[in-house]
Amino acid sequence: MYFPLFLYLCTMNLPKDFEHFFRECWREDDVQTLVQGLDSAPSVSIRLNTKRMPIDAEPKGADGHVPWCPEGIYLKERPVFTADPLLHAGAYYVQEASSMFLAHVVRQLLPPEGGWERVLDLCAAPGGKSTLLRSLLPDECQLFSNEPIRARAQVLAENLAKWGHPNVQVTQAYAEEIAQQISDFDMIVADVPCSGEGMMRKEPEVIRQWSPSFVADCAALQRSIVADIWPALCPNGYLVYSTCTFNPLEDEENVEWIAKELGAEVISVSVDPTWGISGDLRKAGPSLPVYHFLPGKVRGEGLFLAVLKKRDNHEIGRKRPKRFSLPVLPMNQLDDPEACRVDLSLSDALRYLQREALVLPPETPRGIVQVCYQGQRLGLVKNLGTRANNLYPKEWRIRSGYIVPQTLFTLE
């Protein structure tokens, strides 16, 4: 059951500043759109890994495609994703639909002839943006997927290993540390930490922590992060700045700050007007080419995004360092192209992911074997004949023993 926003705010004992805060800077009809949108049910969506499965693969319970991302699919209801071996195989990723707008942006920015060599996902955990980028970037383009917090970096490494691509490095560093090591990224995606207003429908803690002072603190932190990473962007390179907030302090005003203080050019992206994406929502001031996703106008959560280009200031003579001293997380090995492949049943696939021992068909050769589900690799086992020792990483195992196996897809 969903309650009106005003009742919800009252129930959560939040200050009444929230509504007043937005009425000060937004038009009344936009405030009402936000209020009504936050009172509606959130959507559920997934994004296909088209390097593993066909673009026309249709999941059970499909409810239309995400308009700005062909690989994105809405679902009518949220299944128990943990019970689906295809999720663990990296055949698809559970991602909020608004966040998939990055795919539309990258497709417009990426030169048709290629040429990008390095891309950085600065605040990458848990991996939605990085898996999206790795699917769209040329194979020869190196992706640095970064997360400074170790526990979150481990989750990021897991998701990227499952997605599967050799040309990715998961780093654990802060923006300033990266800029000291590398200075020639063709694009940097900075989905910066924020006050999280766009996630109010899903995360009650966001409601509890919100205040105008918290918003101001987040805006200052965001400027600091962008200023620290800016030297790592090559001339004419792109910074994709995004938040999951609505307010102008963290959004439009920070974009203006980046343009003024760092000399960036704000770049427009073409969008279909039927998508319901809003532009600059401020009542006053110049209108910027920016992109707001408001629940109620789009089928997704709150998102703000802007694209900024670093002006060519004739920086020359910079050399690519041959080695990096950034902390790099090792990626667990799930693939062995030389190993025999054995397809498991749905129940055995889930048992494998729970890290139980398996008994493989008697004709299976001994040694390292690649186990799969519906042709999608899950990981490795060591077949001893009478049993197969499970080599799935211990820290990734499904811990619950009460999950009923299920899958979203039946692949031919």
Element layout with pairings:
Blueprint: H1 5-11, H2 17-25, H3 28-38, E1 44-48, E2 62-65, E3 72-75, H4 85-88, E4 92-94, H5 101-109, E5 118-121, H6 128-136, E6 142-146, H7 150-163, E7 168-171, H8 175-181, E8 185-191, H9 204-209, H10 212-229, E9 233-243, H11 252-262, E10 264-267, E11 291-293, E12 303-310, E13 328-329, E14 340-343, H12 346-353, E15 367-373, E16 376-383, E17 388-390
Parallel strand pairs: 5-6, 5-8, 6-7, 8-9, 14-15
Antiparallel strand pairs: 1-3, 1-4, 2-3, 7-13, 9-12, 10-12, 11-12, 15-16, 16-17
Structure description:
The chain is built from 12 helices and 17 strands. It is α/β, with parallel strands linked by helices. Strands 5, 6, 7, 8, 9, 10, 11, 12 and 13 form a 9-stranded mixed sheet that branches. Strands 2-3-1-4 form a 4-stranded antiparallel sheet, with helices on one face. A 4-stranded mixed sheet has the order 14-15-16-17. It is globular, with a radius of gyration of 23 Å. The model is unreliable at 1-15 (pLDDT under 50).
Looking at this protein, list some descriptive labels.
12 helices, disordered N terminus, Archaeosine Trna-guanine Transglycosylase, Chain: A, domain 4, 27% helix, alpha/beta, four-stranded antiparallel beta sheet, globular, 21% strand, nine-stranded mixed beta sheet, 2 domains, 412 residues, Rossmann fold
Summed up:
With 412 residues, this protein is an alpha/beta fold. The protein has 12 helices and 17 strands. 27% of the residues lie in helices and 21% in strands.
